Amino acid sequence: MLLGDLSGGYAGSGGYTLTVNGLASGLRLCIPTISGTNADLTGVGGTAGSNYIVFTATNVATPWVQWVPIATNQFDVFGVANHTNLFTPGEPQRYFRLLQP
Length: 101
Prior knowledge:
about 0% helix, three-stranded antiparallel β-sheet, mainly beta
């Protein structure tokens, strides 16, 4: 990736801006990727090496204390969490939450 301020070729004047495609600071669960019978979940923004928990529910309005934990693991060195969950095509909806305790 090359950054510049567009004022003088590659040299520029020293004022630079970096725009990232939709990523923001803080813990985020990305849109799941469906592959066959798998729903691949990715979370970003965690603290490298710290623990995370993935919770699920079939109704987003379910009280938080009733969401079911389905995975506990550690963020990688980049603060990324990965989990594969069974995808059931006939299930009308399923929601996921990512928590760094």
